[in-house]
Amino acid sequence: MSPCPAHHLRLTREDIRQIQLERLQSTLHRVRRRVAFYKQRFQETGFNPDQFESLDDMVKLPFTTEQDLSDAYPYDMFCIPLRDVVRIHTTTGRGNSPIVIGNSERDLTNRAKLLARVYTSIGLTSEDVFQITLRYGLGTGAFSFHDAAREIGASTIPTSVGHTDKQLKIMRDFGTSCLIATPGYARILLEAMESRGMTPSMLRLKAILLTGEPWSTNLAADLEQGFQAPVYDIYGLSAVCGPGIAAQCQEKTGLHLQEDMVYAEIIDPQSGKPVAPGQWGELVLTTLVEEAVPVIRYRTGDRARLLTSPCACGSTFRLLDHVPGRIDDVLIVKGINIAPEMIERVLTDVLGTAVSWKAEVTGEGPTQQLVLRIGITEPLFFDQMKRQRAMVDRLRHAFAQWIGVTPRILLVEPQSVNNG
Ligand SMILES: [Zn+2]
């Protein structure tokens, strides 16, 4: 069940569909047998995995949402016994609890191989030195890039986030050839490099891999110009095989979906029906080889479309266009998805009462910020400046702790906030 190695280039579309069908049949049987959620969902919708005979039957399957994964906290979505799980990650979702992602040994290998395939396709080898500036924490991102670099025998420097001066020094002194960063942080590094009088000729960068948040094509051009190295778009999400399930090749026509690992659909978010080829909609993903937490028709919330023309590189994996953002009201700051429900929860926890508020993300790169406007009500905020300051500090601390982002908080008249 491991992903096909680089010979996916030789697969015909018929081969790919056959692989997908067989892997789906196996996955559907496994989840019906071992995950109570899917067993019940299949019964409710009258879906029988034994009658799943063609990919056209996918539309008969129920969706899985972020809320479903959150409600299953901690282990209800696990499809294998905990003794066979070798790593546990979490990611934030819309629900009250985080989404828990377990990996079997084979899941970790598959995830590493999937991303290793992306590295290889853009010319990275065991000679390369990877600098991973993503957070090594509960999320999967940094670990996936790390494991995949090891898979191809490259050197990895796990610098994690922040300490920009140190990052630059390491980049120069250690001869980093592949930089892995969120778009925002890549820009911070570029600006820091330029302000310190460093030039790209002092570095040995040959690829910059961006992940974790949407970004503009202007940013990619600025980074390519500033670092004198090509930028690649790496899409992924923790709940579905991690980063690399879609990624640009050297042609940069679009992002090749790793179609032997995931089955992708684009649906109309309102009707749930598939959109016409080439149309924008919501990306829905089904895992094909995950053992610990397989997900069926998972609604990613990401706005996406499939390109209809083939890629000049010769790969038969279909192309996803650059993902421009969300179809819903989830905000993305520094690679962290923030649903309105999460903001609401922190506010209510800290303040002990519901307040009116409005959140927005301003700026890009170093100036990017989550700005939170909170309507002041009498019982909450007294007119003494000192108490207001303490309240704001407590809120900022709570957001940093529970969401991982420290917002700029503005106390405003309740009438000027239109989000309830
Ligand atoms: Zn290609």
From TrEMBL:
Pfam families in the cross-refs: AMP-binding, AMP-binding_C_2
InterPro entries: AMP-bd_C_sf (IPR045851), AMP-dep_Lig_C (IPR028154), AMP-dep_synth/lig_dom (IPR000873), ANL_N_sf (IPR042099)
Domain AMP-dependent synthetase/ligase span(s) in chain numbering: 116-285
Coiled coil feature spans: none
Domain of life: Bacteria
Domain AMP-dependent ligase C-terminal: 335-418
The entry's keywords: Ligase
Listed GO MF terms: ligase activity
PANTHER family linked to this entry: BLR5969 PROTEIN
Protein name: Phenylacetate-CoA ligase
Organism listed in the record: Desulfoplanes formicivorans
